[in-house]
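Worked example 2:
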Amino acid sequence: MKRISWAVQASLFYLFTLTLSFIPRGLVTRAGQLTGMGMFILLPKRRSVAVDNIRQALPHMQLSPDWNCPLATPEEIARETFINMGKSLVETCRLYHCKGEDLIDSIEIRGWEHYEAARARGKGLIFLTGHCGNWELVALAYSRIFKASMSVVARRQNNPYLNRMVETMRMHFDNRVIYKDNALRNMISVIRKNGTIGLLVDQAVFPEEGALIPFLGRNAWASKAPVILARKTGVPIMPAFVHREGDRHILTVHPECVFDAGESDESMAANVKHYSEYIERFITTHPTDWYWVHRRWKRTGEAVQ
């Protein structure tokens, strides 16, 4: 019975993405806006999580010199966030079905010199990012832009049919998927072959996997994986984020994130905080381009003193 349910779910997902893929290029933005507004209305629990997260982070962001958002309330920011999510969904569905590749060609790269400097070291490369802008677009566009394949770390879907379908769609663009079971070993293998890994590190982890750090004014658990990989392999950790400017996508690659070599828990926490500050600055600068709907502060939640 479960297999039948999984097959139905996967079929509906395929039909949904296929339907969206037929939207003409000129209507993608409008269709995305309508999709996002539909999600905002029809997903009240997710909307509530987003509004609550923004409400608690807003005082901290507004104190930052990077804050320039014209939207005044958590509800307005959440609404625009859902609209951007809708746009990304439509764009990604079209790419999954090998349409809309002109979108890839229109991506603007800032900080190309940082990528070249890291690649010249010959030690592989980790793009450190988060659920920012259309992050799926960047993964799918990587081989076209940088002339190399990327291994993306992802959680295996509970539905094996759906998992196989999404994996196949991603591999159309010369990507590889590393699943979180045995992820560390597989990432080290890719790095030692001078490969590239895309690592999203903006979600809550279990305490044994992370360090407790201040993040947007509240304590949060953040992954130790980037620091461990950098220490074990010497791989450059390159913060990189995509955001929207009108109908364009801008991918910004920052200089290599350098960690200290201390072995103490305090040193690890300081290094985790260091890379997390790149994500924090991105969110403050582009608050409607971050995935506020996940529970980033779970397992803690107290305000930073």
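The first helix runs from residue 2 to 21. The longest strand covers residues 237-245.
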